């Protein structure tokens, strides 16, 4: 047995044999508070974490699938042309919403803890709706022409993408434990 292991074992045995030590109540409260916030993160905290990731992922996704004519990088090819040719404008709006939010939720899964994914699942439709609504507001702010019917279809796609991606992330996180 190495010297380091012997020292650890000696200290652990001394800890087990020690008389009970009175821990200050403030310390106990603080430890429980920190543990509670780690084990039960707020939905708002998770939303802002996803929103930060969404800004980066959303910009990248706009380069391959232009949403409402938004093309920040001036790329020539876009998946939206292919979607429209295959299924028409309405389905294209749904599929683009699925991709735009779904990719963000999947990417966020790389950075969220299992507890944060659990908190996300408790409010996944609200989270996807909020993220989709914020995205539509940002598109409008930058001058994208939004028609209510198409924005509604896109938001439906955002809800579907958020739900599917959240469930996929949940399954992947649970397998990796």
Can you walk me through this structure?
With 177 residues, this protein is an all-alpha fold. The chain has one domain. Helix content is 79%, strand content 0%. It is elongated and about 75 Å long. It starts with a helix and ends with a helix.
Write a concise keyword list for the protein shown above.
177 residues; mainly alpha; 79% helix
Low-confidence stretches: none
Structural class: mainly alpha
Strand content: under 5%
SSE string, helices as H and strands as E: HHHHHHHH
How much helical structure, as a percent, in the residues?
A: over 70%
- The coarse silhouette is elongated
Distance between the termini: 30 Å
Strand segment tally: 0
H/I helix tally: 8
- Which sheet architecture does the biggest sheet show? none
Average pLDDT confidence is: 86
Radius of gyration, taken over Cα atoms and rounded to an integer in Å? 23 Å
Query: Please, how many domains?
Result: 1
């Amino acid at each position: 047995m190495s010297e380091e292991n012997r020292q650890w074992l000696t200290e652990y045995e001394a800890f087990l044999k020690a008389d009970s030590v009175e821990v200050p109540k403030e310390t106990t409260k603080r430890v429980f508070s920190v543990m509670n916030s780690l084990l039960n993160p707020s939905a708002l905290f998770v939303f802002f974490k996803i929103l930060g990731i969404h800004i980066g992922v959303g910009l990248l996704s706009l380069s391959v699938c232009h949403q409402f004519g938004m093309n920040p990088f001036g790329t020539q090819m876009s998946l939206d042309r292919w979607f429209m040719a295959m299924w028409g404008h309405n389905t294209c709006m749904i599929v683009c919403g699925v991709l735009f939010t779904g990719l963000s939720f999947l990417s966020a899964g790389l950075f969220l803890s299992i507890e944060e994914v659990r908190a996300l699942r408790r409010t996944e439709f609200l989270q996807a709706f909020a993220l989709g609504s914020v995205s539509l507001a940002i598109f409008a702010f930058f001058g994208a022409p939004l028609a209510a019917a198409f924005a509604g279809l896109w938001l439906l796609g955002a809800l579907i993408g958020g739900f599917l991606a959240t469930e996929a992330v949940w399954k992947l996180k649970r397998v990796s434990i």
